[in-house]
Amino acid sequence: MRNLTLLTDLYQLTMLNGYFEKNIHEDIVVFDMFFRKNACNGGYTIVCGIDQFVDYINNLHFSDEDLEYLKSLNLFSDKFLEFLKDFKFTGDIYAVPEGTVMFPNEPIVTVKAPLYQAQLIETALLTIVNFQSLIASKASRVCFAAQGDPVFEFGLRRAQGPDAGTYGARAAVIGGCSATANVLAGKMFDIPVIGTHAHSWVQKFDTELEAFQAYSDIYPDKCLLLVDTYNVLESGIPNAIKVFDEISKKGYKPLGIRIDSGDLEYLSKEAKKILDKAGYTDLRITASNDLDEYTISNLKSEGATINSWGVGTKLITSADSPSLGGVYKLAASYKGDILEPKIKVSEDPEKINNPGYKKVVRIYNENNKAEADLIMLHDEKIDDTNPLTVFHQTYTWKTKTFRKYKIRELLEPLYLNGECQYNRRSVLEIKDYVKSELNTIWTQYKRILNPQVYKVDLSQNLWDLKKNLIDSKKFL
Amino acid sequence: MRNLTLLTDLYQLTMLNGYFEKNIHEDIVVFDMFFRKNACNGGYTIVCGIDQFVDYINNLHFSDEDLEYLKSLNLFSDKFLEFLKDFKFTGDIYAVPEGTVMFPNEPIVTVKAPLYQAQLIETALLTIVNFQSLIASKASRVCFAAQGDPVFEFGLRRAQGPDAGTYGARAAVIGGCSATANVLAGKMFDIPVIGTHAHSWVQKFDTELEAFQAYSDIYPDKCLLLVDTYNVLESGIPNAIKVFDEISKKGYKPLGIRIDSGDLEYLSKEAKKILDKAGYTDLRITASNDLDEYTISNLKSEGATINSWGVGTKLITSADSPSLGGVYKLAASYKGDILEPKIKVSEDPEKINNPGYKKVVRIYNENNKAEADLIMLHDEKIDDTNPLTVFHQTYTWKTKTFRKYKIRELLEPLYLNGECQYNRRSVLEIKDYVKSELNTIWTQYKRILNPQVYKVDLSQNLWDLKKNLIDSKKFL
C-alpha cells in the first residue's frame, strides 16, 4: 500500500508544529467534511472513496524518509519531528456509508480527534473523497440519461493521471457503469472490464474486411466490430455484415458494432436499417466519441438507435464540472470538558459553516422515499412516534410537518478511539447500494438540467446555536 | 516503483492476443502521439510527463499476479500469456525533450517497435503525457497572466486523486509556478513547498489576535497571516498590523498577508492602503480563491494590489478545459523491408493523421524566435545554406520563404533498440528549459484569449504522400 502520509498541504504541518509548540495539539476538536454545491450541477451527490480513505488512515505513519525530508525544510523543531515518529490516528470518525446519496452542507465525514490528528488528515480526505464522489455522481447522471442502456467507462487515456483513471473507473462503476476498459482497475477492484479493438487493428491489415475476419477468427463469440475506420455506411457496416454472415454460419451469434466518430444520430439510424435488413435486428449498437449526459439525452430524444454507450473523457474528468468542492471545517473544540462550537464567518452567507458536533438524519415517507434531511446536534434525539416539523434555514416560516415517517441516521462509526469499525464491501455491492439509494430519491432531484432542490434543514437547537454564534461577535 | 503494466485499455490486450494468434505481432510499426488542439484553448502546449513515461517503460513487465488476473478473464490463450511473461520493450522511441513547446498535429512522441509492444503502451503514454502537458500548459498561462508575480500551486484537495495532485504539482512547477503546497510532491520531485496556516488555526484560538500572535511566536521570520477568517478590513488587517509591529520590534521583517475570500480587487486595494499607512509598504499581498488566468488578468487590469497568487482548483484540474486530447495513431507498418505509410480517414478532415515515419523541424530566425515548424519524413534533410519555402497544409498557395534561419530537430532518441537514451534532468532544470522555450515564442501565440495560430507545415514529400494515400481508396 502506498504511503500517502505526506499527501497533505504544507500548512497542515506548519500548523501541527505550531499546535505542538503551544501545547494544544492534544485538544479534542471536531471537523466536518461537507460540500456546498452538488457535483456536476446536479441535484444530489453520491459519496464515494471511503474505502480509500480507510486505507489512508490505516496506513498513516511518517517513515524515516518522510521525517528526513521534513527536517530538510528547516521549518520544524526536532522535538516535533520526534513526536511525529509515533503518529497514529486515535480518534473517532463518522462517515456515511460509501455510495450514500447526500446533499449540500451535510456532514459526510465527521472527525473527532486530537487537534494534530484531525488537522493532518484534511487534505488527503478531501483529495480522495472529492474526486471519487465527483465521478460516481457524474456516472450516475450519464447512466440516468442512458435510460437503462449499459454505459461503459472508456476514459483512461484522458484521465488526470493513473490514479484518476483507476479510482475514477472504480467510482464510475459504483455510480452505475457496467464495466470499464481500464485493466488495472479491473484487477484492483474486481470490476468487469470490456474491450474489443481499435482503429489501428483495422489499419494494420490490408483491407477492413481482412481485419474484421481476423478479429472474428479469434473472438467468434465476442464479435463486436469498430466500423468507422474508413467509412461507416459504405465500408464498415457492409464488411461487418459479411463477417457476421460468416460466423453465423459457424453457429456464433454476432455481438454488434461500434461507431466512434461522425454524426451518431444519423449513422446509428442508417446502420440499424442496414443491419435489420440483413437480419441482424438485435445487435449491440455502441457509440463513443465525446459523450456525456447531455449528448446522450439529446441522442435519445432524437431517436438515435444506439443501445450501448462508451463514455470517455467527459466522464472520467467530469469535464463540465471537474471538481467537487468538498471542504473540511472546524466545528467545535473542547476546552477542558466543555465543547465550544466554532464558526467561520464570511461575507458570503453560504460559506458560514454549521457549528457544533452534529449528526444527519434522513426522513423517509411510508414508501421509503426520502422527504428531507435534518442536521442536528450529536446528542439530540427524535421521537418518531410524534409528528416532526422541519423549517427552512433561511425562510424559517416555510415549514413542513411529517406524521407518518421513518428516520435514519446517516453517519456511521468508521473509527472509534482509533479502532477501525469499517466493514469493507465489494465495489459491486456498493454499486447495488447506490442503486437502492437512488430509488429512494424522487426523480425531480435526478433531473439532468435544473433539478429540484432537496430539503436540508437544521434542528431548532442547531439553528439557535448558529444564530447566537453569528450574533455574538465574541470571535472577532 | 509502481507496476503500471496493466494501466491499459483491455482492447490493447485483446488486439495483442489477436496479433499474436495471427503471427504479425513482431511486425515493426510506427505510431505517433500528437494532439489536435492546444491545451487550455491556448496557442501552444508544453509537453510534460516524459520522465514518468520513461519510468513506465523501464518498469514494464507482467507480474505473475498480472498474468493470473489476465488468465481469469478467459480472453487469452495460454501460449499468449506465456509469451507476455518475457515482455520487454525492445524498440525505438523518439520524443521531444520534456518542457518543449509544441503545436497541434506534430508528433511529440514517435514509437517504432514490434506491433505488440507499440500497441500496448498507447494508453499509459497518453494518460501520463496528456495530463502533465495539460497542467504545465495551464500553469504557464496562469503565470503569463500574473506578469512575473509568483504563482503558488494550492490545488491538492480538489485534484482528481493523489496522482493528479502530485504529478499535477510537478507539472505546475515545470509550467512556471514558484512552489506547491503539496508536501509529497515536494519530497518526490525536489520542488519548493510553501504553506502558512488555515482558517482553522485562527478559529482554534479565542481571538484572531491571539492566533496571529501564536503564529508569529513560532514563525517570526515567516510571518504571513491569513486575514479573512472573520473580517478582512475590520479585524484581519488591524490584528495583523499589531502583530507585525510586535515582531518588527524584535527585529523580524513581516512577510505579508493572504486573502482567501471576498472581492479581491477591493480588499487588496484597501488592505494595501491600511498597510502602507502603517509603514508596511513592501509586504506580500497574496490572494487565493478560485483563481485562474482569466480572473488574474482581470484583477491585474483593474489595478488590484495583489503581488502573489495562490491558485488551486482551476489550475490543478485545468477547470475550463480539463483534458488534453492527445492521440496515438498508426503511421506506418513494415511489410518485409518495405515501410507502408498508414492513414486513418475521417469525415472530419482534422482527424486524418499524417502518415509515414516522420520528424519535426523548428525554424528559428536570427534572433532565436521560432517562425514555423515543418513535419517531414524521417529521412528527409534540409540544406540550411539554401532558402527554405514552406506552404500551408490546406491553402497551399500560402507560402513563406526563409533565407536566414536556423533549424532544430525536435524529436530526440529516448530509446534505441530498447536501450534507454534518456538523460534525466531535475524538475527545476526542466522549468528553466520551459522558460527558455517560451522566450523563443512570439507573444501573439501566448495571448490568453484568441492567440494567433502558429505555422505547422508539411514538407512537399509528406504532403504528396498524404494526398496520394487519401486519393487512392485502396485502404477501403
UniProtKB/TrEMBL annotation, chains A, B:
Residues 6-130 form the Nicotinate phosphoribosyltransferase N-terminal domain. Keywords: Glycosyltransferase, Ligase, Phosphoprotein, Pyridine nucleotide biosynthesis, Transferase. One of its GO terms (cellular component) is cytosol. SUPFAM superfamilies: Nicotinate/Quinolinate PRTase C-terminal domain-like (SSF51690), Nicotinate/Quinolinate PRTase N-terminal domain-like (SSF54675). Residues 152-321 form the Nicotinate/nicotinamide phosphoribosyltransferase domain. CDD domains: NAPRTase_A. Pfam families: NAPRTase (PF04095), NAPRTase_C (PF17956), NAPRTase_N (PF17767). Its EC number is 6.3.4.21. Residues 358-466 form the Nicotinate phosphoribosyltransferase C-terminal domain. InterPro entries: Aldolase_TIM (IPR013785), N/Namide_PRibTrfase (IPR041525), NAPRTase_C (IPR041619), NAPRTase_N (IPR040727), Nic_PRibTrfase-Fam (IPR007229), Nic_PRibTrfase_pncB (IPR006405), Nicotinate_pribotase-like_C (IPR036068). GO terms for molecular function: nicotinamide phosphoribosyltransferase activity; nicotinate phosphoribosyltransferase activity. GO terms for biological process: NAD+ biosynthetic process via the salvage pathway. Transiently phosphorylated on a His residue during the reaction cycle. Phosphorylation strongly increases the affinity for substrates and increases the rate of nicotinate D-ribonucleotide production. Dephosphorylation regenerates the low-affinity form of the enzyme, leading to product release. It is an enzyme of class 6 (ligase). It catalyses: 5-phospho-alpha-D-ribose 1-diphosphate + nicotinate + ATP + H2O = nicotinate beta-D-ribonucleotide + ADP + phosphate + diphosphate. Pathway: Cofactor biosynthesis; NAD(+) biosynthesis; nicotinate D-ribonucleotide from nicotinate: step 1/1. Belongs to the NAPRTase family. Catalyzes the first step in the biosynthesis of NAD from nicotinic acid, the ATP-dependent synthesis of beta-nicotinate D-ribonucleotide from nicotinate and 5-phospho-D-ribose 1-phosphate. This is Nicotinate phosphoribosyltransferase. It comes from Asaccharospora irregularis DSM 2635.
